[in-house]
Amino acid sequence: xxxxxxxxxxxxxxxxxxxxxxxxxxxxxxxxxxxxxxxxxxxxxxxxxxxxxxxxxxxxxxxxxxxxxxxxxxxxxxxxxxxxxxxxxxxxxxxxxxxxxxxxxxxxxxxxxxxxxxxxxxxxxxxxxxxxxxxxxxxxxxxxxxxxxxxxxxxxxxxxxxxxxxxxxxxxxxxxxxxxxxxxxx
Length: 186
Prior knowledge:
Blueprint: H1 2-18, E1 21-29, H2 35-42, E2 48-54, E3 57-61, E4 71-74, E5 84-94, H3 98-111, H4 124-136, H5 146-153, H6 160-165, E6 176-177
Antiparallel strand pairs: 1-2, 1-5, 2-3, 3-4, 4-6
């Protein structure tokens, strides 16, 4: 009887070590529906915001004027103000445990400062791709940031103030700027 209980405990330990957490990319439309948006979709270009959902929280990046983190989290699929949820994609499964996931987010929250936001070269989609890469080993799909890549080829069509100050994010009341103290692992 003792050996059966030991086997059960061994199996539970094995399962918990192999537990994998899903990582989703949640994508939002930043433009209202209409003919221009529809045309953009037809040619493969849209203007999107994205966040990464893991452990029932969605992590996002937005700009502000302070030298503090631009990483914030909220309930999944809500998005920041003035965006519309489009779709969610399973990027993969992370084999990291909850503490390791928290450590990755801690590191990124230090690297992704609010005052480092740039519409073309360091935006929410760049952050989402980096977080997906660190958690799952593969980045977010390239199409989520196609508009920014096109903008780097034709910066003259964008006002310079848009590029540097375009996404000052004021998270909704249900979201929180990330800090080591605000996220607890359970």
